[in-house]
Write a structure and sequence with these properties.
Strand content: 25-35%
Radius of gyration: 14 Å
Distance between the termini: 19 Å
Structural class: alpha+beta
Strand order of the largest sheet: 1-2-3-5-6
Largest sheet: 5 strands, mixed
Number of helices: 4
Length: 137
């Protein structure tokens, strides 16, 4: 089964195949445990205008997560990641969660506002059935 860094590499390959440029933010593991401020996301991805992955072109903040089982638990999202997603969404900029289901090796591309709204309602996870409409193969 893939570890989180391997999933991030798959994400980068997927973005490049779709004509995008993935720009990865440094995280604590990259800094060998040195103190770092929280980043807004794992990646910012730049797409040209008219690209099928992001029609209007421009930049998209992307948080990459992986999970096992039939539900993605929101507890996999750190409080700082929720905060960044909410701030960026509030400013009208695109922020997406790329969720990778490890057993099926399936990607789901879900707008941050969907997860933010559900978490605000007290919902703790999202099922594979509910994720189906966000499938991104």
């Amino acid at each position: 089964m893939l570890n989180p860094k391997q999933v991030e590499k798959l994400f980068e390959e997927k973005v490049r195949l779709n004509g995008g440029l993935p720009i990865r933010f440094q995280d604590v593991k990259d800094a060998n445990g040195s103190w770092l401020k929280s980043n807004p996301a794992d990646f910012v991805v730049v797409y040209p205008e008219g690209n099928p992955a992001f029609e209007r072109g421009g930049s998209v903040y992307c948080e990459v997560k992986s999970f096992k089982g039939v539900r993605f638990p929101f507890s996999n999202i750190k409080p700082s990641q929720f905060a960044w997603a909410a701030q960026i969404h509030r400013l009208g900029q695109p922020y997406m969660f790329y969720l990778f289901q490890k057993e099926t090796e399936t990607w789901y591309l879900i707008p941050a506002f969907v997860i933010l709204n559900q978490a605000k309602e007290g919902i703790k996870s999202i099922s594979l059935t509910d994720l189906e409409k966000y499938k991104n193969d």
